[in-house]
């Protein structure tokens, strides 16, 4: 976390939630579960996000050490974003959030139907592949 965004945390959970908080960060991070992605691909997958907000969110995730950016020396410029080793540790947390969210939605579903986990939000197969992939920067 940048010094600007750091706060005096009273618990580690508060610090962890600060890193992934916001409307767009989970959508951005979910897209990176499948592997490195270019800026335009991330923007396309986060429908409704502005370029300014996407750039800001990517910079914050990069400053926090969750993702890294690779710039290729080509014309037009090519930039890819991917998880760092620290960022890969979030996959277990994402799975737990998806599982709990499904339970929460089921409990609060007025018609009582079970809400299944949604693979579009989190894919255990992708997360497993991410954990066993080659180390990244």
From TrEMBL:
Keyword Ribosomal protein: no
Key word RNA-binding present: no
HTH hxlR-type domain ranges (all copies): 11-109
Molecular functions (GO terms): DNA binding
Domain of life of the native organism: Bacteria
Alphabetic keyword roster: DNA-binding, Transcription, Transcription regulation
SUPFAM superfamilies: Winged helix' DNA-binding domain (SSF46785)
Annotated PANTHER family: TRANSCRIPTIONAL REGULATOR, TRANSCRIPTIONAL REGULATOR, MARR FAMILY
Name of the protein described by the UniProt record: Helix-turn-helix transcriptional regulator
């Amino acid at each position: 976390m940048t010094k600007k965004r750091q706060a005096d945390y009273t618990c580690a959970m508060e610090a962890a939630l600060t890193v992934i908080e916001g409307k767009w960060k989970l959508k951005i991070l979910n897209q990176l579960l499948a592997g490195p992605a270019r800026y335009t691909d991330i923007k396309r997958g986060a429908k409704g996000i502005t370029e300014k907000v996407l750039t800001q969110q990517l910079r914050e995730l990069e400053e926090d050490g969750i993702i890294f950016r690779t710039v290729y020396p080509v014309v037009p410029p090519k930039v890819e974003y991917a998880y760092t080793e620290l960022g890969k540790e979030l996959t277990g947390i994402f799975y737990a959030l998806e599982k709990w969210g499904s339970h929460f939605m089921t409990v609060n579903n007025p018609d009582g139907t079970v809400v299944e986990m949604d693979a579009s939000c989190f894919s255990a197969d992708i997360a497993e592949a991410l954990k066993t992939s080659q180390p990244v920067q």
